[in-house]
Amino acid sequence: MQKGETTPLYRKLIDDLKKLIEEGKYKQGELLPSENDLCKTYSTTRPTVRQALAELTNIGLITRQQGKGSIVAEPRRGLGILSVSGVTAGVGDQNLKTVILEKPVKQNWPQELLHQLSFEEQAAGCIFFTRLRNINNVPILLEETFLSDINLPRFTSRSLENRSFLKVLNEHYQVEVTGGEQKIWAVAADKNKSKLLRLKPGSPIVHMKRKLKTNVRDLNIYSWLYCNTENYYLDDYF
Known about the structure:
The protein is of the alpha+beta class and about 240 residues long.
């Protein structure tokens, strides 16, 4: 392969190997060419090849085993939880099941919400509930949700098990999401969250704090999300 004028050689190597894996040239469990072979094929150095292989490892396409080499990993699937359309819409046709850990209840706003509340929101209080989302019977996403208790009669009696929360809001209250913001961290799972997500304590998980704005004045939705990305990656389209 000829080196381009602007694209780094390691990036072209990444793109080539990624394409070959996605097209099935190298299948799950198979070895990629050795570092020496890749150096010869691409007329490059071992550090360049290792940089490319490290990137492929980081995005979950390969695993590297000492004494064996680079092995094509089991394919991961994307989770569209970054979408303001909600988790159900983002996950799509995957086998999604929702377990209610804490049913909707009226309460005061938590002090550590992170977002600034309006006077109307503070006065109205919030409705809080917790759900665990499972894909193919594996717990993937823990949700803690707070929404402004404004014009939501009998919401605490609504069933949210295996249902889209945003669809319930739309069907019963004509509430629609109009925009939002989210902040994302990587954190270590504590004892409780690791147990719920079936991970070892201290395992890295994605933590998101989200605010969704709606078409109803001062009715905002706040969520704390904790995501197990051991077998999935987060994706979105824009």
